[in-house]
Amino acid sequence: MTKRIGALRFALLLSAVVGVAFTGSSSAQYNLKTLYAFGGSDDGFFPNGGLVFDSAGNLYGTTADGGNRGSGYCLLSKEPNCGTVFELTPTSEGRWTETILYTFAGFDDGATPHAGVIFDTKGNLYGTTSDGGGRTAECPYVCGTVFQLVPGLNGWNESLIHAFAGTPDGFDPAAGLVLGGDGNLYGTTRLGGAYGGGTVFKLANSSDSWTEEVLHSFSGRDGGNPVAGLILDSSGNLYGTTLVGGSYNFGTVFELVRDGGGWTEHSLHDFTGGSDGGWPNSSLTFDTDGNLFGTAEIGGIISDCSVPWNGCGVVFELTPNVSGTWNDTLLYSFLGGNDAAYRLGNVIFDAQGNLYGAAAGGAPADGGTIFKLAPGASGWTESIIQNFNSGNNGEGPNGNLLLDSSGNLYGTTQLYPTVSCCGSVFELTPESKK
Q1: Number of folded domains in the chain?
Q2: pLDDT digits (tens, 9 = 90+) for 413-431
Q3: Nearest C-alpha neighbor of 128 from the set 196, 190, 218
Q4: What is the pLDDT of residue 13?
Q5: Are the C-beta atoms of residues 335 and 385 closer than 8 Å to each other?
Q6: Looking at residue 326, which CATH number applies to its domain?
Q7: Which parts of 25-90 fold into alpha helices (H)?
Q8: Which residues of 62-80 are buried (b: 16+ CB within 10 A; e: fewer)?
């Protein structure tokens, strides 16, 4: 099986559905600062994943290509620059300095990290690569890996804690990991597994030795192609999304509940591709009441994105009932044009209950936006707090946003104009904080 074959297995056709209109508002006042612009070679390029802070205020992330082992693109068989893990450190002059912690070689150590990294309590970093790993008949050197980076006196040491094989453990882990209270790592693979539709997996740690277990394999009716990461509730149950599959083949929101010594999967919502959205490709967020919030790539009202898709995407809420079912509520439907559109990351809360997210489409030049949703007595009001365009400030904000305790937002873009490629790390500061 190849990635192309697996993806085609879960391909879908769209149907035109008219949704309900929601209206956005004008831009809020934020100041954009580029913390670092990638140069396209030794320092890496295409930062696709989210960012994470350490306790000292340094930022960590990944680039899907480039690195400092030589020159050229990652071709797996020819070039050694298959992505990086980097650190950004603030200086006293207000600038940020990049340090490459590790460059992937493309074979046994992994290649193409599309997601960010996470810390454990000891200060080690963990992440996934979509390619690389061991050679198998199903996907030679492209099944993907889970890696660990351990800090040492002479830098960071990388080791693989799992290399995927395709069947039965899945392949192409496109999302990042979540660390459970039990010390185990949990994640998803986009493809492979028992039925070819991807998996949810656990990596259990015992005396620094990791053992992988597939918790669930998607077959299509229950979802397929989970491209987003997982979140945990206080009981250790897992929640996530699948890009396709479900009753209407437009994706699902699912829950995996600990059931004795095993896990039971429940579908919380099957997207129709209409006003409720479709193709959810980002992770979920809990509020303090246990409700789930997320985004879907398409759907909503008929708008500037109606051809070829059905709407520009939505923000939704799922609320649990005492019966065990969940109610789906549409919070906002994107309009495209000057509004946000498609390729949506997850949404995050600030202390006041506002939601923030990134969209790689929308804005006058279709360069992407950062949006805010504020709750009110009559519903949620959207405002665009930043428009991106390749003319002066980057293009294509992607991945998840990061919010610090001062209300500043951090994220990445895929392109940056000074080098006509490569991407950037940015900070958005509310004007009131200046």
Answers
A1: 1
A2: 987 765 557 889 999 999 8
A3: 190
A4: 28
A5: no
A6: 2.120.10
A7: none
A8: bbbbbbebeeeebebeebb
